[in-house]
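Dear Dr. L.,

I hope this message finds you well. Following up on our conversation about the binding site, I have prepared a predicted three-dimensional model of the protein together with DGJ. For your records, I am including the exact sequence and ligand specification that went into the calculation, followed by the structure tokens. Please feel free to forward this to your student if that is useful.
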Amino acid sequence: MFLLLGFKGVYAPEHLYGWSRTFFSKSDGETFFVPSAVWKDSGGKVINAHGGGILFYAGRYYWFGEHRPASGFTTEVGVTCYSSKDLYHWTYESVALAVSNKSGNDIEKGCIIERPKVIYNTRTKKFIMWFHLELKGKGYEAARAAVAVSDTPAGPYHFIRSGRINSETYPVNETETIRKTSFNSTLNSTWWTPEWRRAVEQGMFVKRDLQTGQMSRDMTLFVDEDGKAYHIYSSEENLTLQIAELTGDYLGHTGRYIRVAPGGHNEAPAIFKHGGTYWMITSGCTGWEPNEARLFSASSIWGPWKQHSNPCRGRKANVTFGGQSTYVFPVEDKTGVFIFMADKWNPKNLADSRYIWLPICFESDGTPYVEWRSRWNL
Ligand code: DGJ
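The resulting structure of the complex is given below.
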């Protein structure tokens, strides 16, 4: 049996003992992230913040995520917030955005809130949360993006609105093709035929959804060095990613957006910038089951985006170590350090889904990769 003594506790493989802390401390105070372990907050409760992201503000890290129930898939609580000084020790702050008890409200208890992300607007001094919203009782058909705002990082956030994106607007990178092509409406009744695939690539679903606005499911946010913010989401029946510019106050969309990897079936986008290049890690679409991660790069957020090979290495690299990307966090006070954040979903008990955080490493040519580590620190 593998045992390392000299630690405050006993360091042993997770499957033998089960971790019960966010991190593991050595007697000299050194701390580690332990991916896939049970991570607890400073009050000893299991951290419930899935599909989330991190905001750094005034010397503190704020982790926002989906509160998930032990059984079922719908949102009964809302978006939770934890804060930390060092990324290892997390204090439960609050339910940053609570579901509503009013029947018919967009975020009524029993809706589905996924992948919340928070950014700070230095001009308006507001904290802005965007998330994927599905309406109560409608499965995943609404495919809406929703926005909420707060004056303080931990909230409470006030829900503003939800809806589809950029109605009556063509993407900037394929306007002419989509405008000119007339798609046979019967094509959508049989998916995966070569004709259907070609039509998807040519923008059949963009055109179908022109009036209502574009679908928006798995999502993330990205603020560039010039302060412009972007919303990146799985659109067009999860077949194509879109990147849409947010307005100066980050509360809406400007109408400028592009399609990325048409027909590529990408979910779980996580984006970051390193060495002047935009990098995006995504997953395929297999529900709660893990699959192989994908990597894309571009020298401009507006593309063209190029696909690279799977960025994961080591144990279970072919299924993203059993997880699915949610965010890449640039550790603000450690320039050049990026944390790849992923969820190891447990659909039988979503509250027990685990967190896989790993460092992003870079090849000599600047290409990022993520290697499995059973424990690591900054
Ligand atoms: C995969 C998505 O990435 C998750 O956020 C969630 O929507 C599940 N699908 C639901 O099956």
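In brief: The CA atoms of residues 80 and 95 lie 4 Å apart.

With kind regards,
A. P.
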